[in-house]
Design brief:
Layout (H helix, E strand, L loop, with lengths): L2 H16 L15 E6 L2 H18 L3 E6 L3 H10 L6 E5 L3 H6 L19 H4 L12 E7 L1 E5 H6 L8 H13 L11 E4 L8 H12 L5 E4 L2 E4 L4 H15 L18 H9 L3 E6 L4 H9 L3 E4 L10 E10 L6 H11 L2 H8 L17 H5 L2 H13 E2 L8 H16 L5 H18 L5
Parallel strand pairs: 1-2, 1-3, 6-9, 11-12
Antiparallel strand pairs: 3-11, 4-11, 5-9, 5-10, 7-8
Helix pairs in contact: 1-3, 8-9, 8-16, 9-16, 16-17
């Protein structure tokens, strides 16, 4: 069974098991602590612990906090299948469609949500389902930015890239120019999390598709059409494949070795350890990279412009109030606390990296809290150039299938790009129709 079919089968089975979960009798002990999950590594877990401790001190409501990273989605489906969901979950906005379609989350009444009027509308849109209703509370937003080894760039006498052509030129220089000065050919220009796991490659490549005028799905009047075989997408994929397939001096490409099996958490170490010099990623990595390679050794810039601009992926995290909880009033209290100015600021000041990247509360000043021009750059990019993935009931199948096709195209350099994207488009069109979102 392919990864896509296996994933679909798991979701379908879980959907049957949790259907009606939102209308079933409350589960669990109404006096037990609220069970809260976040999709987090241990470093960010400490930030959440502080926020939840503050909440308990203020309200007396105890929290049973569980940071989960490995197999997060699988473990959530297991809990859904056993009809024993956590009370609240903080994870990517991309989870909303799956959670809502499976009946795993409760609807949010914005009018009755304390502090909801202070949240920026664009953030609220991250919690909106395909039916126009809200099934989560936004707690953080962000936009991707381009991280560059500034010391390497300056050593090689290269300008800050503002166009695709300059970006490729810099990537080649980092690969062939011995920017670390060790006399060995062991540095690479582009750092790519190219694994198909969770659709990572499509997540990374999406910004470049948009910058070329392409897309995976294009919205038309509240519905969508498949655009993964459009001229803009074809042009973007041809350009991207050049990074994987065109060799430079030394006989290798500008991307790091093993890129097509690299997940995001493994990708970070290449930049951290001075093996790759350009990385399109989220601003949450600044705290880690400030330690290694060091704050003075890299810069954060807006993505260089492609043929159709510099649009990048803008997403974030929602807090989901899970169905079946015996504590709906306390669920709501914690969600309201998470978007308060105090909690938002505490999340932004997390060490080594924040759990609230850009605040969703309009009363929180990004510049005043961070006092860091890099975060000002990210905020500007989010306001002017960021966009989310399409608002379909479940975008994951589209992202997953796109990642698998791109991975195969970049691994087999002679493959016909138009033909393979055409096959992908046919499959995505079937998925679009099955979700009732086809134009």
């Amino acid at each position: 069974m392919s990864g896509v079919r296996r994933s679909a089968a798991v979701l379908a089975a879980a959907s049957l098991l949790v259907a009606g979960c939102g209308t079933s009798a409350p589960q669990g002990d109404p006096n037990a602590p609220l069970e809260v999950w976040t999709r987090s590594l241990e470093d960010t877990a400490k930030v959440y612990e502080k926020i939840f401790s503050d909440f308990t001190a203020k309200t007396g409501i105890k929290i049973d906090y569980k940071p989960v990273y490995n197999d997060f989605d699988k473990r959530m489906q297991e809990r859904a299948a056993s009809r024993d969901l956590p009370d609240l979950v903080i994870t990517d906005v991309s989870a909303l469609g799956v959670y809502q379609s499976q009946g795993m989350v409760t609807e949010i009444d914005r009018a009755g949500f304390a502090g909801g009027a202070d949240l920026v509308e664009r953030a609220w849109n991250n919690a909106k389902g395909a039916d126009g209703k809200f099934y989560g509370v936004p707690v953080s937003t962000q936009a991707q930015a381009t991280f560059i080894r500034k010391d390497w760039r300056e050593k090689l006498g290269k300008p800050v890239p503002t166009t695709w052509a300059e970006l490729v030129d810099l990537a080649k220089a980092f690969t062939t120019g011995d920017p670390d000065g060790n006399g060995q050919s062991d540095t690479y220009g582009m750092l790519v999390p190219g694994s198909t796991d969770r659709g990572y490659l499509a997540w990374w490549a999406s910004s470049y598709l948009w910058q070329a005028g392409g897309d995976i799905l294009a919205e038309e009047g509240g519905k969508y059409r498949v655009a993964v075989d459009s001229p803009g997408t074809v042009a973007a994929v041809e350009w991207l494949r050049g990074m994987f397939c065109d060799t430079v001096a030394g006989g290798h490409s500008v991307v790091q070795p093993g890129a097509l099996t690299t997940i995001t958490n493994d990708a970070h170490t290449f930049f951290e350890q001075g093996k790759a010099g350009i990385y399109l990623t989220g601003p949450y990595m600044m705290g880690r990279f400030d330690k290694a390679p060091g704050k003075d050794k890299y810069e954060v810039i807006a993505s260089p412009k492609g043929p159709h601009g510099s649009t990048v992926l803008g997403e974030g995290e929602n807090m989901y109030l899970m169905a079946g909880s015996a504590r709906p009033a306390d669920q709501k209290k914690l969600a309201e606390f998470m978007v308060s100015p105090d909690a938002q600021k505490a999340g932004m000041q997390g060490v080594p990296r924040p759990v609230v990247r850009l605040p969703v509360n309009s009363k929180v000043d990004v510049n005043a809290v961070y006092n860091d021009p890099r975060w000002s750059t990210v905020a500007k990019v989010y306001a002017e150039s960021a966009r989310p993935f399409p608002n379909v009931p479940n975008f994951q199948p589209f992202r997953q299938q796109t990642a698998e096709t791109l991975n195969a195209l970049f691994a087999r350099c002679g493959t016909d790009i138009r033909a393979e994207l055409g096959k992908l488009a046919a499959n995505l069109n079937k998925e679009l129709k099955s979700q009732g979102m086809a134009k």
